[in-house]
UniProtKB/TrEMBL annotation:
Keywords, ordered alphabetically: DNA-binding, Endoplasmic reticulum, Homeobox, Lipid metabolism, Membrane, Nucleus, Transferase, Transmembrane, Transmembrane helix
Ranges where the Homeobox domain occurs: 86-129
Source lineage: Eukaryota, Metazoa, Ecdysozoa, Arthropoda, Hexapoda
Gene: LOC112053654
Residues of the DNA-binding region: 88-130
Protein name, as recorded: Ceramide synthase 5
Residues spanning the membrane: 41-58, 181-200, 207-226, 265-284, 304-332
Pathway in which this enzyme or protein is active: Sphingolipid metabolism; Lipid metabolism; sphingolipid metabolism
Length: 368
């Protein structure tokens, strides 16, 4: 039964172009080119654990000391006073309803405001400090910088970087080089690590959008690897990394309270994001995969799955573009970039109108 399911899932009519078999794409010394090995799609998973370990070491021994040297505090949220009955009520429902707050206030001889404040402080216990958020963003920014440079070096002498039609000409008999193999594997491992660590990282409002983004990216990398569509996959990776550099650096500068640097980077983010995610990606990548590809090679079902995932990423780009432009609008009104980029806190701090993920107010800002 299992064998029948596996054979049905990997049906050549679904995954490969017409008149092509898995034997045709199987790597071997007698083949004219070096084909991708479908078994290597699992290599990034253990490598993701290496990334998580590396991140832990870098954040603890390099990024955290660097953040402290910039004056970033590792301040823990204030603890609420011990109260067994409120603790039991919190465990039953962390977000108490007004009726429950009123009943607890009468039962414990407290004001409703005191009960609400206790619940608010209790919810804040799981929130990371500014230093933790800073370290997370610096790590991601460092990876995107390194991976973008690596990808640029790898693809600079590849003909499909300059002529996207080369992604399809000669398909599926396109060989893979060692540098492209490493670029693909490292990128996939990083997104696997983000998917795993997202459940204990800083939780933002766009948690599920990011989760869908990571899963879609991993699926894209896996499908394109198995179907030997790695050329278009490398272009998508390179295009995404350059904008993500600005996303993470803006957040890090905000947490470090370098407001002028933050504003400058945020302007660069708007230009880079709109230029790559909202212009080059749909009008160059998506147009190529949707219009040019059917002209140059016969279509097959897996290709439509691959292209649908690319469109899914575009939809997420549009959602995040709206959030970024919203932040830009309020930044222009306030005279500075305020709040988190691409997402924001789902909780408010005790200070009225002040987000837990926002940095201190204007009079405390550092200036370069």
């Amino acid at each position: 039964m299992l064998r029948r399911f596996v054979d049905g899932f990997w049906n050549e009519d679904v995954w490969l172009p017409p008149n092509t078999t898995w034997a045709d794409l199987a790597p071997g010394p007698e083949k004219a080119v070096v084909y991708t090995d479908h078994r290597h799609v699992f290599v990034p998973i253990p490598l993701a654990l290496v990334f998580i370990t590396l991140r832990y070491l870098l954040e603890r021994y390099i990024f955290a000391p660097f953040g402290r040297s910039l004056g970033i505090k590792d301040r823990k949220p204030k603890k609420p006073p011990p109260n067994p009955k409120l603790e039991a009520a919190y465990k039953a429902n962390p977000r108490a309803r007004p009726q429950q707050v009123c009943a607890l206030a009468k039962q414990l001889d407290m004001s409703e405001r005191q009960v609400e404040r206790w619940f608010r402080l209790r919810r804040c216990q799981h929130k990371p400090s500014t230093l933790v958020k800073f370290c997370e963003n610096v790590f991601k920014c460092s990876f995107y910088v390194c991976n973008f440079i690596f990808g640029l070096v790898v693809l600079w002498d590849k003909d499909w970087l300059w002529d996207i039609d080369q992604c399809y000409i000669g398909y599926p008999h396109q060989g893979i080089t060692n540098d492209v193999w490493w670029y693909y594997t490292i990128s996939a491992a990083f997104y696997w690590s983000l998917t795993i660590s997202q459940f204990w990282d800083v939780r933002r409002k766009d948690f599920w959008q990011m989760f869908v983004h990571h899963i879609a990216t991993i699926a894209l990398l896996s499908f394109s690897w198995v179907c030997n569509l790695h050329r278009i996959g490398t272009l998508v990776l390179l295009l995404h990394d350059c904008a993500d550099i600005f996303v993470e650096s803006v957040k890090a500068a905000k947490y470090a309270r370098y407001q002028k640097l933050c504003d400058t980077l945020f302007l660069g983010l708007i230009v880079m994001w709109i230029g790559t995610r909202d212009y080059i990606y749909p009008f160059y990548i998506i147009w190529s995969t949707s219009i040019r590809a059917p002209m140059l090679l016969p279509m097959f079902p897996a290709y439509y799955i691959f292209n649908s995932l690319l469109v899914l990423l575009l939809i997420l780009h549009i959602v995040w573009t709206c959030l970024i432009l919203q932040i830009a609008y309020y930044a222009i009104k306030a005279g500075q970039m305020d709040g988190d980029v691409r997402s924001s806190s789902s909780e408010l701090s005790d200070s009225p109108g002040h987000s837990n993920h926002s940095s201190p107010q204007r009079n405390n800002k550092k200036h370069e």
